[in-house]
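Lab notebook, bench 4. Still working through the backlog of constructs that have no structural model yet. Next entry is a single chain of 278 residues. Request: give me the structure tokens for it.
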Amino acid sequence: MKSPKEISVDEKLITLTNEIINLTQEKDTLPLKVLNLLINDAEIQEVQDYANTVSIKRLGFNDHGPVHMRTVCRNALKMLKILHQANIKTSLEQEQAGTFSDSVTSVILASFCHDFGMTIARQDHELYSGILSYNIIERVLNQALDKQKNLKRFVTIRSLAMEGILGHMGTRKIHSIEAGLILLADGCDMTKGRARIPMEINTKPSAGDIHKYSANSIEKVKILSGEEKPIKIEVYMNENVGFFQIEEVLMQKINCSPAKNLVELYAGIIGKDIKKYL
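Model written out:
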């Protein structure tokens, strides 16, 4: 059974994907077909749920389950929409290897699968995510896009999705804007709601505590059109501990991202001056 939060994010994702489709001349519905398949796939739901069990109950970390993966998808789609409206092409478009819709589809797939490896372990979980997600991506994508009739497109989308999954921790060199947006979108999911469940569970001190407490101080993250650069990220917190999320998590991911030059970053405590990082 899905939680009310999952259902709410699903609805927002469908709305946002429709908005993106309607921005394009082609009106290609492939991203929406793939999104609906992912949302309604029983195996994906079970993997995401168990990833959360391992992350929260076993390791004492914050949310790495269905709500987090959906939130990363929403963040990434917001950024793609901003770039498209600013007439900035994705890597597939620049290379004439695929369409904007292909980029959107790959980002959706990567977002929904990027933390599958948390079902196994935290260390190298991005690699385990790649192993666990490959066959699922094949299955889902083949339902939306006949592999035999669209082999080149199929391979391109699958490959780009895998790059986004394997690169989302910044531990592996990635090169596409699309994969770089997964890094940014993952780092932007840092609001206090993500730490709500682990904060409510009475556990002994653990390695994940700093993530819980720092995330619990973040009140809001905004993804907007920028002034100096296309994408503007604003982070608002209620305590200084929130700067851990900015400086040790988000900034690390931005610095590893091929999309770094497209982002400006601001952060600060509510009621005080906001600091410009990028």
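Notes after review: The two ends are 41 Å apart (CA to CA). Strands lie at 218-225, 231-237, 263-269, 275-276. Flag for follow-up if needed.
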